[in-house]
Specification:
The complex is a heterodimer of chains A (112) and B (227).
Chain A (H helix, E strand, L loop, with lengths): L1 H7 L6 H5 L10 H11 L4 H15 L1 H23 L6 H14 L9
Chain B lengths: L9 H13 L9 H16 L25 H13 L5 H7 L5 H23 L23 E2 L8 E2 L7 H4 L5 H14 L18 H14 L5
Antiparallel strand pairs in B: 1-2
Helix pairs in contact in B: 1-7, 2-3, 2-5, 3-5
């Protein structure tokens, strides 16, 4: 979806940078958004507060709250997908394998 | 800067409140007391800095959960595993679980975990306290099974017919309609309303679609979710 939405809007996407948590999309606040998402999936409260404050400072409160909502959504959807054995059609997997490899998720257990 | 509940969109607050309240109410296959108890285990699972490893059932560890449970131990073990180690789940694991838990009860159980995980994640991200679970509401589960429940190819759980016409995540909870409704009400408020999914330019005026997908990709990668 990241690649698709980027392509649709003519925005360059660098999946290796997303994986490395250094940004990865030529959009505003990319680095801060990735830092915020990374901190939210961990347990370091200092990193969480620092990344939240940084995002609020550059993007504002409303963007930060909506970013938190998207994070929350994918904490839900990843569990929904993995617990119900969700899989993509074979042809879709083939199409997306290069992306999965770039993101380092081509060998994870949840590939099914 | 401190974020307060008053700063949050009303539709998002309402979707979370509705799903959170339902955790203590009778569901389709679990009673209110069972749902609340399972939600408590899910809360523990997502909150522990040092979780149990995937192969250890939470019910087998002294002091982790109550000794006088209203939901089966297997259900608690399943909830903990999904809440904390979802990417490790396999079809063999699922087959073992449904020897002890009805398939549709399993779907509802997944919905309980998803609700806890999403509300806790949001609250932690904006530095708000996670709300207390309401006292369990007395009452039996409805046990209303839709007539057209069928096996699917794209999920290991059964779904409403016709199977595999929609994406696997979209059809995953359809066999338990109330769970499906609550989860997708949250998804609409947290991410993108269903009818807007095909529009790459859709925005609430805050995040662009690419920014949303950047966050989604990072979270999914961190959770090792291949889907």
């Amino acid at each position: 979806m990241l690649s698709w939405s980027g392509n649709e809007q003519g925005i360059e996407i660098d999946l290796l940078s997303v994986q490395a948590a250094t940004g990865g999309a030529a959009v505003d606040f990319a680095h801060e958004l990735v830092e915020f998402a990374t901190a939210a999936t961990g347990f370091d409260q200092t990193a969480m507060a620092k990344s939240r404050d940084a995002l609020i400072a550059c993007a504002g409160l409303a963007v930060t709250i909506d970013a938190a909502a998207v994070i929350a959504n994918f904490e839900m959807m990843t569990r929904l997908a993995d617990s119900t054995g969700a899989r993509m059609q074979t042809e879709v997997v083939a199409d997306r394998l290069a992306i999965a490899t770039a993101m380092g998720v081509d060998q994870v257990v949840s590939r099914r | 800067m401190t974020i307060s509940v008053n700063d949050i969109r009303t539709d998002l607050v309402l979707a979370h409140e509705q799903a959170w309240a339902a955790l203590s109410q009778p569901g389709t296959w679990w009673s209110g007391a069972q749902r609340r108890e399972l939600a408590t285990t899910a809360l523990m699972a997502v909150s522990e800095a040092e979780p149990l490893p995937p192969w250890v059932g939470v019910s087998s560890v002294d002091g982790k959960i109550s000794q006088s449970l209203v939901a089966p131990r297997t259900a608690h073990d399943t909830v903990y595993r999904i809440a904390r180690h979802a990417a490790t789940l396999t079809s063999d694991w699922y087959k073992r679980v449904i020897q002890e838990i009805d398939q549709l009860a399993f779907v509802e159980l997944c919905g309980i975990v998803c609700t806890v995980a999403t509300v806790v994640a949001f609250r932690n991200a904006v530095d708000l306290e996670v709300p207390e679970l309401a006292p369990a509401k007395i009452g039996e589960p409805s046990r209303k099974k839709p007539q057209n429940v069928v096996s699917a190819t794209l999920n290991w759980v059964p779904v409403i017919a016709p199977a595999d016409k929609d994406a696997a995540v979209v059809q995953a909870f359809t066999a338990v309609p109330e769970t499906n409704r609550l989860i997708w009400a949250m998804a609409d408020a947290q991410y993108i309303p269903d009818k807007e999914m095909v529009d790459p330019n859709w925005t609430r005026g805050t995040l662009s679609r690419v920014q949303m997908e950047l966050i989604a990709t990072r979270v999914s990668q961190q959770r090792e979710c291949f889907y």
